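Two entries, shown back to back:
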Amino acid sequence: LIALHGYSFAQDETETPTPEPVLLGPARLDLNTRAGDQSQRQTYTTPAPSSTITIDVAAAEGANGKSGFDLHLSYDPDRLAFQTAQPVDLFEGAFLLPSLEPGSISLVGLLLDSDAPQVAGSIAHITFSVLDSLNESTQISLDHLILGTALQIDSLQTGTQSSVVTIGGDRETETLDKP
């Protein structure tokens, strides 16, 4: 209730509903390193200790004309170690500024003399090494992806299925119906 010069006004105190999470957001992680998203969210086999895993960070929309990106990944530092990051496809040749902490990577990329040439595609390849035997699976998750120019910044939504890749573990089997 708000009182102003002898008048009383009731204030609407309804809460904004929390939006339902989406399964497939335009910000995606993929274990297939071809340009774009091929929807490979889990390794086919369990990688051996000291082997490397490269993930593809991709955008399914909103990249055309953008000159920079900001992304954040989370992972288990007891199972994986960051090795390298490389700009690819949409941001090929971008200047990279990584920030590393145990279990997380923030990566900013900037194209200095061009813009992303298309709406969708790959942004960066990030390589990890496997530290020990993976008796259980481990995951790498994309916490946020922002694309922008000097005048506009767009945050791409992450999906509950499309922003996480699983390294090792048992793959779900699909039962196909009769043809």
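entry 2 starts here
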Amino acid sequence: FDLELPGRKMRVELVGATQPLVGLDCSLLLVRRKHPSARLENHANDVLRAWLDHLVLTASGVVKPRVHRVCLAYRDGVCPVEIAAVSRDEAHAYLKTLLQDLLTADNEVLVPFAAVVEKGLKKSPQEFPSLVSSLMARQRPPCAGPVRRPETFRIPAEGEAAELIARRFEPFFGRLSGGS
């Protein structure tokens, strides 16, 4: 990706491996815990990995734009989820937006994915700062994924959080269907 950042240009190459694939249109994710529930939002954290694979495979031209199926294999059952097709141009533009955002935006904010799911999929009416605070208070010890000492990061205000969620996650949430 050739990025135009403030005051400089940068080339970013994405390197790595996808989750195991069945063909090129189905991700197989092995999840070591029990099946969470029938609600799609309870699988969002697991499906996010497959979404990123779907974007990279489509943007790179490895696969043609089509529905990407995800098979979540839990200890006690299987959950199929579908991610709607994204065009090669859309996938490339979205990945480029994420990269620019991560390289230029203020990323010293606390935005736990559980709170993003509450706002983005469950459409929680609770203000984002209080939602994050209540989620953090319920977790023992407080945890925000790989973030060490989450209490040292500021929680974005409602408007800032809404913009961030829309920019980074709406394309993902808008393309999900399934869950069982």
